[in-house]
Protein backbone atom coordinates (compact mmCIF):
# COMPACT_ATOMS: atom_id res chain seq x y z
CA UNK A 1 0.00 0.00 0.00
CA UNK A 2 2.84 2.38 0.87
CA UNK A 3 4.51 1.67 -2.49
CA UNK A 4 1.47 3.06 -4.32
CA UNK A 5 2.53 6.55 -3.28
CA UNK A 6 5.76 6.26 -5.35
CA UNK A 7 4.03 7.02 -8.66
CA UNK A 8 0.83 6.76 -10.63
CA UNK A 9 2.48 3.93 -12.61
CA UNK A 10 3.08 1.91 -9.44
CA UNK A 11 -0.53 2.48 -8.39
CA UNK A 12 -2.03 1.60 -11.80
CA UNK A 13 0.14 -1.52 -12.12
CA UNK A 14 -1.11 -2.94 -8.80
CA UNK A 15 -4.51 -4.68 -8.89
CA UNK A 16 -5.49 -3.57 -5.36
CA UNK A 17 -4.04 -0.09 -5.89
CA UNK A 18 -6.01 0.30 -9.08
CA UNK A 19 -9.20 -0.86 -7.34
CA UNK A 20 -8.68 1.61 -4.47
CA UNK A 21 -7.91 4.45 -6.92
CA UNK A 22 -11.03 3.65 -8.97
CA UNK A 23 -13.17 3.70 -5.83
CA UNK A 24 -11.67 7.06 -4.89
CA UNK A 25 -12.29 8.47 -8.40
CA UNK A 26 -15.89 7.21 -8.27
CA UNK A 27 -16.37 9.16 -5.04
CA UNK A 28 -15.15 12.24 -6.93
CA UNK A 29 -17.23 11.46 -10.03
CA UNK A 30 -14.14 11.20 -12.25
CA UNK A 31 -13.67 7.44 -12.73
CA UNK A 32 -14.01 7.91 -16.50
CA UNK A 33 -10.35 9.01 -16.54
CA UNK A 34 -8.94 5.72 -15.24
CA UNK A 35 -11.49 3.75 -17.27
CA UNK A 36 -10.39 5.55 -20.44
CA UNK A 37 -6.71 4.99 -19.59
CA UNK A 38 -7.34 1.25 -19.04
CA UNK A 39 -9.37 1.00 -22.26
CA UNK A 40 -6.43 2.57 -24.16
CA UNK A 41 -3.94 0.17 -22.55
CA UNK A 42 -6.12 -2.75 -23.64
CA UNK A 43 -6.64 -1.24 -27.11
CA UNK A 44 -2.87 -0.93 -27.74
CA UNK A 45 -2.51 -4.72 -27.28
CA UNK A 46 -5.10 -5.48 -29.99
CA UNK A 47 -3.73 -7.62 -32.83
CA UNK A 48 -6.65 -8.17 -35.20
CA UNK A 49 -7.46 -5.32 -37.60
CA UNK A 50 -11.20 -5.93 -37.34
CA UNK A 51 -10.97 -5.73 -33.54
CA UNK A 52 -8.92 -2.53 -33.79
CA UNK A 53 -11.77 -0.86 -35.67
CA UNK A 54 -14.52 -2.07 -33.31
CA UNK A 55 -12.57 -1.34 -30.12
CA UNK A 56 -11.60 2.11 -31.39
CA UNK A 57 -15.26 2.85 -32.18
CA UNK A 58 -16.29 1.68 -28.71
CA UNK A 59 -13.68 3.89 -26.99
CA UNK A 60 -14.73 6.79 -29.19
CA UNK A 61 -18.44 6.40 -28.42
CA UNK A 62 -17.87 5.76 -24.68
CA UNK A 63 -15.31 8.48 -23.96
CA UNK A 64 -14.63 10.94 -26.82
CA UNK A 65 -17.68 11.93 -28.83
CA UNK A 66 -19.86 14.81 -27.63
CA UNK A 67 -22.27 13.65 -24.92
CA UNK A 68 -20.49 10.30 -24.57
CA UNK A 69 -21.71 8.45 -21.45
CA UNK A 70 -18.23 8.65 -19.86
CA UNK A 71 -16.94 11.70 -21.71
CA UNK A 72 -13.39 12.64 -20.74
CA UNK A 73 -12.21 16.21 -20.47
CA UNK A 74 -9.76 16.76 -23.33
CA UNK A 75 -9.03 19.82 -25.43
CA UNK A 76 -10.86 20.61 -28.65
CA UNK A 77 -7.77 20.03 -30.84
CA UNK A 78 -7.16 16.50 -29.52
CA UNK A 79 -10.86 15.59 -29.74
CA UNK A 80 -11.07 16.90 -33.35
CA UNK A 81 -7.93 14.99 -34.36
CA UNK A 82 -9.39 11.72 -33.03
CA UNK A 83 -12.77 12.41 -34.67
CA UNK A 84 -11.09 12.94 -38.04
CA UNK A 85 -9.11 9.70 -37.80
CA UNK A 86 -11.64 7.37 -36.15
CA UNK A 87 -12.86 6.02 -39.51
CA UNK A 88 -9.39 4.49 -40.06
CA UNK A 89 -8.05 3.98 -36.54
CA UNK A 90 -4.48 2.99 -35.72
CA UNK A 91 -3.17 1.57 -32.44
CA UNK A 92 -1.81 5.02 -31.61
CA UNK A 93 -4.97 7.02 -32.40
CA UNK A 94 -5.75 7.65 -28.71
CA UNK A 95 -2.16 8.24 -27.54
CA UNK A 96 -2.44 12.03 -27.23
CA UNK A 97 -5.71 11.83 -25.32
CA UNK A 98 -4.33 9.05 -23.12
CA UNK A 99 -1.26 11.18 -22.32
CA UNK A 100 -3.48 14.13 -21.37
CA UNK A 101 -5.66 11.99 -19.10
CA UNK A 102 -2.61 10.31 -17.55
CA UNK A 103 -1.12 13.72 -16.84
CA UNK A 104 -4.40 14.90 -15.33
CA UNK A 105 -4.51 11.85 -13.05
CA UNK A 106 -0.83 12.19 -12.10
CA UNK A 107 -0.98 15.91 -11.30
CA UNK A 108 -4.50 16.17 -9.90
CA UNK A 109 -6.33 12.97 -8.87
CA UNK A 110 -3.29 11.01 -7.63
CA UNK A 111 -2.10 13.63 -5.07
CA UNK A 112 -5.70 13.98 -3.81
CA UNK A 113 -5.95 10.19 -3.52
CA UNK A 114 -2.77 10.11 -1.40
CA UNK A 115 -4.27 12.77 0.90
CA UNK A 116 -7.65 11.03 1.10
CA UNK A 117 -8.98 9.37 4.22
CA UNK A 118 -9.58 6.20 2.18
CA UNK A 119 -5.87 5.87 1.33
CA UNK A 120 -4.73 6.76 4.87
CA UNK A 121 -7.09 4.11 6.21
CA UNK A 122 -5.65 1.45 3.85
CA UNK A 123 -2.10 2.33 4.92
CA UNK A 124 -3.06 2.18 8.59
CA UNK A 125 -4.73 -1.22 8.12
CA UNK A 126 -1.64 -2.56 6.38
CA UNK A 127 0.69 -1.21 9.06
CA UNK A 128 -1.44 -2.78 11.79
CA UNK A 129 -1.49 -6.06 9.87
CA UNK A 130 2.30 -6.00 9.49
CA UNK A 131 2.83 -5.38 13.20
CA UNK A 132 0.66 -8.37 14.05
CA UNK A 133 2.55 -10.53 11.58
CA UNK A 134 5.96 -9.63 13.00
CA UNK A 135 4.95 -9.49 16.66
CA UNK A 136 2.85 -12.61 17.21
CA UNK A 137 3.23 -12.29 21.00
CA UNK A 138 1.23 -9.03 21.13
Rg from Cα: 18 Å
Kindly name the structural category. Answer: mainly alpha
Distance between the termini: 23 Å
Low-confidence stretches: none
Architecture (CATH level 2) name: Orthogonal Bundle
Per DSSP, the total helix count is 7
Secondary-structure element string: HHHHHHH
Q: What fraction, in percent, of the residue positions are helical? A: 55-70%
Quick overview:
This is RGS21 protein. This protein has 138 residues and is an all-alpha fold.
Care to describe what's here?
- 70% of the residues lie in helices and 0% in strands.
- Helix 3 crosses helix 6 (95-115).
- The protein starts with 7 loop residues before the first helix and ends with a helix.
- The chain has a single domain, classed as Regulator of G-protein Signalling 4, domain 2 (Orthogonal Bundle).
- It has seven helices and no strands.
- The model has no long low-confidence stretch (mean pLDDT 91).
- It has 138 residues and is an all-alpha fold.
- It holds the Pfam family RGS.
- This is RGS21 protein.
- InterPro entries: RGS (IPR016137), RGS_sf (IPR036305), RGS_subdom1/3 (IPR024066), RGS_subdomain_2 (IPR044926).
- It comes from Fregata magnificens.
- Residues 7-123 form the RGS domain.
